[in-house]
Design brief:
Number of helices: 5
Distance between the termini: 46 Å
Structural class: mainly alpha
Shape: globular
Order of helices and strands: HHHHH
Helix content: 55-70%
Radius of gyration: 15 Å
Number of strands: 0
Strand content: under 5%
Length: about 80
């Protein structure tokens, strides 16, 4: 069911401005590591919340999949260092 919803979303990105805006907000939330917003925007919100609670990482700055090897975190730190 989730795979079908994701596929439908991919098609709808090209057809509906609302879907594009949702996708953009999710991308921004991911890039800025705003976990609450990501969970609220999730396609399967209940399952996303459950997984985040079960596998909560030791650092709130990283996700449950990558941990300290989070590409978004590493890139953010790299770009921040370049600006200083």
């Amino acid at each position: 069911v989730i795979a079908t919803r994701i596929a439908a979303h991919a098609v709808n990105l090209t057809r509906f401005e609302e879907e594009y805006k949702w996708d953009y907000r999710m991308s921004k939330a991911r890039g800025e590591m705003r976990w609450d917003e990501q969970l609220n925007l999730s396609i399967d919100k209940e399952n996303a919340i459950k997984i985040r609670k079960e596998r909560y990482p030791h650092s709130p700055q990283v996700c449950t999949m990558c941990g300290e090897l989070c590409a978004i975190k590493i890139l953010s730190e790299y770009l921040k260092d370049g600006r200083e």
